[in-house]
Amino acid sequence: MSTIAETAPRDQTSRRMRVDGWRWGGRVFLVFMLLYTALPMIWMLLTSIKSGFAAMQFPPQWWPDQPTLASYQKLLDPQNSVGQDFLRFFWNSLFVSTATTVLSVIVAVPAAYAFSRFTFPGRNFLFFAVLLRNMFPAVIFLVPLFILMRAIGLVNTHGSLVLTYLTFGLPLAIWLLKGFYDNIPIQLEQAARIDGATRFQAFILIVMPLSAPGIIATAIYSFIGAWNEYIYAYTFLSKNEQLTLPVGIQRFFSENTTDFPGLMAASFMMSVPVVVLFLVLQRYFVRALTEGAVKH
Amino acid sequence: MAHVVLKDLVKTYGGFKAVNEVSLTVNDGEFVALVGPSGCGKTTTLNLVAGLTSVTSGDIFIGDRVVNDLDPKDRDIAMVFQNYALYPQKSVYMNLAFPLQMRKLPKNEIDKKVREAARVLDMTQLLERKPRELSGGQQQRVALGRALVRDPAVFLMDEPLSNLDAKLRVQMRSEIKRFHQDLKATIIYVTHDQLEAVTMADRMAVMNGGFLQQYDSPAQVFAHPVNMFVASFVGSPAMSLIPLEASTANGDTVLTSAEGWSLALSQPNARKVQGATTRKVVLGARHSTIKLHKSAVPGSIPAKAYTVEPTGDVTFVQAFLFGAIVNISVSPNIAVTPDEQIWLEFDQERMHLFDGETEMALRAN
Fold this sequence. Notes:
Helix content of chain A is 76%, strand content 0%. Chain A is an all-alpha fold. Chain A has two domains: 47 residues; 217 residues, MetI-like fold (Orthogonal Bundle), CATH 1.10.3720.10. Chain A is globular and about 70 Å long. Helices cover 25% and strands 33% of the residues of chain B. Chain B starts with a strand and ends in a 10-residue tail after the last strand.
């Protein structure tokens, strides 16, 4: 007994020391990651409110002497050519991304539900075939897809991008949603069908509301993927009035002399919709809606 | 309310027969329990009646209709699930109202029925809560409420009590029984717990391996099990089954064990054994029909106590009778200690004899 009593506290201290060491290591690492992520964005924001001259100064001005919103005004002014272009690109991106998102949800929801609930011949094969597309780097498909798009006459249309983004986004969307459907107890649908619902009504009235977080997560994922995509947009579109934001901004500012505050202001505004989308819908990511449905 | 008839019902999954030629009739207003171990086909049978699984062959009648090809919603049934399957996004009120909304009842009538069901189940104060805010027993009650709010032809219950703790289970057991008596409802109740079946059901259908083994009142099943499976499944502690060899000499029929002890049979029992086609006979005895002696008496067999479990009213003794394990119940004022030498006496009137090869009960001719 006495040996145990003597050694026990020492053991505990050394263990607590070790835990604390790890904990502090973890904190330092997290702070580093935070700075690594946040600093470029802060710098982007700061540069966007500098004058063109201030942006080029070295050593840099950490806080601009004369903060100005001139770049934003220029970009959002439909009267001048810069503003016209920017707003057009913005609209193009919004259209392509929204179309991609809507279509991918429309396709992924029934597909994921079918994979989750029904057994049919070739189910496993199809499910993994869906993933095949994501096993290769995107660039590999650039030339084949371009040739394909030219053959069906979609080059220089937004349709080519929507179709392409769908092939990228759908596999993951289907996987993600299937996970959600797998977690919704099948007894809920059975109960609904016995309570007088058709299979379709059970899906719409009971399953859909429960899978809303999954659908929203999927939608955000598709939207961001399409919104940020550069290489396909760069290849498939050549007419200035069709460009999406990533390509548009790049081409636009390399044509003029590099206007860093303008570029940063445009980049900032490009990230706004994504951030807003996230902030508004983030609670759906964490909401455990099925809690209480069944006893665990 | 309506009667339910299953006729030669078969369900196969690939090559596996989950339900095998099951035929039974549930009378109008009758409480029938489908009971058996896991994988015996009882839940599949219930799902066939509910229409959640398609029939491979055979017919299901609810009332006078064949319902084989009807959707669940058109069968006029209600079901209580093991995990309750309450709609998590809906309040208790909306859970109860859902089956009525689906049948397009007017709003005020829905409200009346929901409140009536809530009153019957004593949960009026819970109507605005979400399922996750309820205790297990309350969730169970809501599930029951959702079934009875619609006044269906048949109630199907799939192990509704197995997720409750022991005390609540006993309480809900009597509530469901009362509910059956008050409503005169036709109920098909699936359970793996033979005690639930015995205590609640008018008739119980014991299933094993997809086959219906015996379908009779609990008392009959208990007193006259048709085979060794039913005998050992129904009753707790389980019936002791002792494999023996039958022989007849000088007009007396004797059961002999491989270890050398023997048991002379009474005339009625001897006749049963003589009718058998094999000499291998299994002796079955329930715990209450075996007498425990502290010293040898004529006709008793020596055994050794293994475990002793006092429960208060009665003490259960498990004993080794050579190879076989035997359950005995004794009065608590008889003190038995583990490893003590004891003698067992079997009640000839109440013992069961089974054919050692077919496992079927031996009957007097």
